[in-house]
Design brief:
Two copies of one chain form a homodimer. Chain A is of the alpha+beta class. Chain A has helices at 17-31, 37-49, 55-60, 70-82, 125-135, 152-155; strands at residues 86-89, 94-97, 107-112, 118-121, 139-150. In chain A, 40% of the residues lie in helices and 19% in strands. The longest helix of chain A is centred in the N-terminal third of the chain and has 15 residues, at 17-31. Chain A is globular, with a radius of gyration of 16 Å. The structure holds zinc ion (4 copies). Residues 2, 4, 6, 115-117 of chain B line the site of one zinc ion. Chain A binds a DNA duplex (30 and 30 nucleotides) through helix 4.
DNA sequence: AGCGATACGTTATAATATAACGCCTCGATA
DNA sequence: TATCGAGGCGTTATATTATAACGTATCGCT
């Protein structure tokens, strides 16, 4: 990893805590789930990190507040994913706060293999979903686009 | 997993062994790699499976022919990925033969969460790549689209 | 023959993720 | 308010996935 500071996201794209909590309430109601201290702590961690967070990195640092065992952390992060407040990034085995909070289901993540920065970008949802529908009888639940490469800063 | 037979791919999309070996030769030359028995065996396994293959499933079955340890199998599969002859599917921790052999770098995979079937679909490459370029200075190396949901057969 | 790069076999270990089970808490309902 | 079922958490153990390390073999070239 290059050792430079990651750019904070433009404020317009960062979900405010208020927005996040409103979404949490709404979706908890819809899904019969509860908004708990663990989940709020997990969300705070993701928002503070402003980038991908790996479960076992959390465990080996001092960050936790109640999140002290793998199962606990996985449960909290997965709950956030279910609630639409986080992504799981399979190609990194990591979780990240979701910025485009309810606008589109599909997400496009640009993962820099040099520095580890991940940008969340509004996806070309219509074109992508149209293409999927055109090709099959597949009923799409989730679409994840993980693009790997090298970010502008690393190439500068 | 539902217990039905998976559909063979239309023959037009299945790479013939001849095509695959031609590609292997060409790309080995380009990359200074070698086409080995292990890699050919790995490719045969993927083509026979006609779907995603998990490393430790291979180990616990009797399939191997020389591929008997994790490191060996991972090396062979990763070599196939480098050569453009296979995909790694991060959301499944699995490998699969690549059908669209050199047409497009980006791939769109439709993963049925019910039966495990994975269809490889020609992606809307231009739209997707254009969107990526429009959004950043990111230099894209690979784009993987993994759509999860439910295939037509499972819903029938 | 000599040499560097690539690849393989093997052993051990690291990294990632889940199972299982008991206890707790919330909220609906009687 | 007593009861009850679902959701959630803490903890321990274990399963699953992936890589490190190192010595040997092989290839292509000179
Ligand atoms: Zn960086
Ligand atoms: Zn970068
Ligand atoms: Zn099936
Ligand atoms: Zn299916």
């Amino acid at each position: 990893m290059k050792n430079h500071m990651h750019h904070p996201l433009p404020n317009a794209l960062r979900p405010s805590l208020a927005e996040a909590l409103a979404l949490a309430d709404r979706r908890c109601a819809e899904l019969g789930r509860r908004w708990t201290v663990s989940r709020q702590r997990a969300l705070e961690i993701l928002l503070e990190a402003n980038g991908p967070v790996k479960v076992y990195d959390l465990l080996s640092s001092f960050k936790p507040g109640g999140l002290t065992a793998p199962a606990t952390i996985y449960r909290a992060f997965e709950a956030l994913v279910d609630l639409g407040m986080a992504h799981r990034i399979d190609s990194l085995n990591a979780y990240m706060a979701r910025h485009f909070i309810d606008k589109a289901q599909a997400t496009l993540l640009l993962v820099c293999d040099q520095c580890g920065r991940v940008d969340e970008v509004a996806p070309p949802t219509p074109a992508l979903l149209t293409a999927i529908k055109a090709h099959s009888t597949f009923l799409t639940e989730t679409v994840a686009v993980e693009a790997h490469g090298c970010c502008g800063d690393c190439r500068a």
